[in-house]
Amino acid sequence: MATQTTASCTGSTLLQPLSEIINLPLDQVNFVACQLFALLMAMWFRIYLHPSKTSPFIRHVVATLLGFYLALFCFGWYSLHFLVQSGLSYGVMIFAGLEHMHKYCFIVTLGYLIVCQITRVYVFDYGMYSADFTGPMMVITQKITSMAFEIHDGLAKKESQLTPNQKYLAISRMPSLLEYLSYNCNFMGILAGPTCSYRDYMAFIEGTCYQARHQENANGKENGKFKQSEPSPKNDVISKLCTCAISLAVYLSLYKLLPVEYSIDDYFVKSTPLYLQVIYLYLAMLALRPKYYFVWTLADAINNAAGFGFNGYNKDGSPRWDLISNLRILDIEFATSFKLFLDNWNIQTALWLKRVCYERCPVNPTAATFLLSAMWHGVYPGYYLTFVTGIGMTMAARAVRHNIRPYFLVSDSHKLVYDVITWACTQVAISYTVVPFVLLAVGSSLKFYSSWYFFLHLLCLLVVLALPVKSKRRQAKEQQENQQKDSQSDPSTDSNCNQKDKTS
């Protein structure tokens, strides 16, 4: 098996003997080896290139050179695409006018990624579903487009036009080429991310990341409460490495025993009762997820080991190292709604989609966000089937939560029943939705859905039609209009109180 994958591996063949011994594709062996090397380099980087010992310039140079080395080892000369994509986008930032720079940069960056994905899939190796050079380009695309919007916010917009989070992330000067390349291609995130904001990365490089910082979901009381100049990430790194080991062991033990492809096997579909098909599908997806848990948790541990990822303190005074974490495993496995599952899965990508699309799209932001996510993931038809299905699932789940959940909040026992039912429905809905994401091809994906008689598609359509729910934007607009009417109808209302309400 391993020898057959050598031809499809574009990187170093140094670890080919190890690949044959453990019977895993060489590109995956290279990836894991490079991430383990990056973990060691991260600890060295934190100790010997600490901001108190060296300049930001040296830290930028070393982080960038190590990143390019890892990219060359894993992907060979295909890693030049990282430089080409970054160079084209930087040129757009420099030479395009500030008014439309972010739009041009978005088109160029995402367009180059899609061209590379089309070439890889339809010209070279359709169906290769392992480590490939477009994976890092996906993270670089997130970083470049985020930076372009943040530069536009900082240099072309007034503060009154920005949300509090946009004000915090706004960039007030054009980054130098070295800073730009270090942010995109540093060794901590070149292979598997996760993405992060430019401002947070610069705070890490300059050594100011342990100061009180803005948080989207913070209550404003945690940061700065405990005076500790530089907390150690050791405990969190060890904990995340243990999670990686467990995830890898579970994945290697189960993924061959419970293949998703078996759910469309003709004999299985005809001879297996429907409830057993549902259980098998859930278990197959459950066996597949630890692969992502391993990759993303290891990437998070690497950044933490380098000193990046500090996010304030817990109430008990212990440091939090989840600034750029990509998932919350328990919240995923016990999610009681489609939204909760998505909010805890690939968190940094969800934040990117929110910041560059959902918050800025004037028309149907939910559909636009799912479409952008599909385009960013790649050109396999299964991706688009998954995200189109996801739109319906999200709308139906929102309608159910808005219309039905209030009836179950009358007591703890009623809410427990609601949570158990919605957990089971959420797990089935997620598994049903992402099958095309795994199968990739149109034929096999439609074969699966037809074996279920498109049941959940039709159910979602029925729920959306029967239980309409107003969008959040429309609800906010109506609430604002009602407040204005109330203030006009009651002239005695104190203006200072109105100002306070608007500010909050």
Automatic annotation (TrEMBL):
GO terms for cellular component: endoplasmic reticulum membrane; membrane. Pfam families: MBOAT. Keywords: Acyltransferase, Endoplasmic reticulum, Membrane, Transferase, Transmembrane, Transmembrane helix. GO terms for biological process: lipid modification; phosphatidylcholine acyl-chain remodeling; phosphatidylethanolamine acyl-chain remodeling. The chain crosses the membrane at residues 29-49, 61-81, 101-123, 382-400, 420-442, 448-469. It is a multi-pass membrane protein. Residues 489-498 have a biased composition (Polar residues). One of its GO terms (molecular function) is acyltransferase activity. InterPro entries: LPLAT_7/PORCN-like, MBOAT_fam. Its main location: endoplasmic reticulum. It is found in: Endoplasmic reticulum membrane. Residues 476-488 have a biased composition (Basic and acidic residues). Residues 475-504 are annotated as: Disordered. This is Membrane bound O-acyltransferase domain containing 2. It comes from Oryzias latipes. The gene is MBOAT2.
